[in-house]
Specification:
The protein starts with a helix and ends in an 8-residue tail after the last helix. Strands 11-10-12-9-13 form a five-stranded mixed β-sheet, sandwiched between helices. Strands 5-1-6 form a three-stranded parallel β-sheet. A three-stranded antiparallel β-sheet has the order 2-3-4. A hairpin with a 5-residue loop joins strand 3 and strand 4. It has eleven helices and 15 strands. Helix content is 41%, strand content 19%.
């Protein structure tokens, strides 16, 4: 009986590995049809096979970025990025396990030895600097810097110049692109770094600072849930970019799977429905 059980386990793992290989081959075919680049297609499928054999994909996420990735007190994760992660897991036939990371340590955590997680997701902007050190997927959500302020002061801020003044306190979370943007563009304002990103909107509403530097993906949630707040420059973001999935180099086989999932969600309407669910602007016509 024990031997029979072991044989069944072995057969199941073989089938899962075969499924993973077929998924990689399918993704490679799709990629080859759309690109002249053939180098990725020849990559080893070791990471995908490892994930399938493990039975779960390890997802690094900050859990502090509503509505993209948030961790409730009971450990439950929800958000736009979390749903993307679950779609990736579903495509591999595995479960999801979420691993807490942070904006200041995100790069170090992706590159850590031993590896902490297979990929990171949830409000991660695609940048050239990140792509030099790591792999980033295609974009699945349009992004850009904007502000949150008190609703009673919304008319005060019509441009970046209106914020970059002495006497304007700007609050940001540490270690990410929000802090970098503030330090580069708001040299006349007072920059206040607050450790917990999810606490900053309430602190703005309560008068501890005038402005929060945030993203067009995050600001609408807080405006909808707290009438004390406004995002007067929501339709005129200071920057334009996209959010994607981040992982270490050498995992090109997993990147193929992730990109294929994103394309399928775009083509099938799933991505649009997620945008509507979370009140975000769909930019992939």
């Amino acid at each position: 009986m024990k031997q029979q059980t072991l044989n069944m386990v072995g057969q199941t793992r073989f089938k899962l590995r075969l499924l993973a290989m077929l998924l990689v081959l399918y993704s490679t075919t799709v990629l080859a049809a759309c690109s002249d680049t053939n180098t990725i297609a020849s990559q080893d499928s070791g990471k995908v096979a490892e994930i399938v054999d493990r039975g779960t994909i390890l997802i690094g996420t900050t859990g502090d970025y509503r509505p993209l990735s948030f961790c409730e007190e009971d450990g439950t994760y929800w958000g736009f990025g979390i749903e993307i992660a679950k779609e990736i897991a579903h495509s591999l036939g595995v479960e999801t396990t979420f691993v807490k990371t942070s904006w200041p340590t995100l790069t170090a955590d992706v590159l850590a030895e031993p590896q902490m997680f297979d990929l990171a997701i949830g409000g991660i902007t695609i940048t050239d600097a990140r792509k030099e050190k790591m792999l980033m997927s295609e974009g699945y959500l349009a992004n850009g810097k904007t502000i949150l302020c008190r609703a009673t002061e919304a008319d005060r801020y019509k441009s970046l110049a209106d914020i970059n003044k002495p006497g304007v306190r700007v609050m940001v979370n540490p270690g990410g692109l929000n802090e970098k943007f503030a330090n580069e563009h708001l040299t006349q304002a007072t920059i206040i770094v607050h450790q917990k990103n999810e606490e900053i909107p309430a602190r703005i509403a309560e008068g501890e600072a005038e402005v929060m530097i945030t993203e067009i993906t995050e600001a609408p949630y807080y405006v909808q849930t707290d009438s004390r707040l406004a995002a007067p420059l929501l339709k005129e973001p200071f920057t334009h970019g996209e959010i994607g999935v981040l992982m270490r180099k050498g995992q090109e086989d997993l990147l193929l799977i992730v990109n294929n999932v994103i394309r399928r969600m775009k083509q099938g309407g799933t991505l649009r429905r997620l945008h509507e669910k979370y009140g975000l602007v769909y930019a992939y016509e």
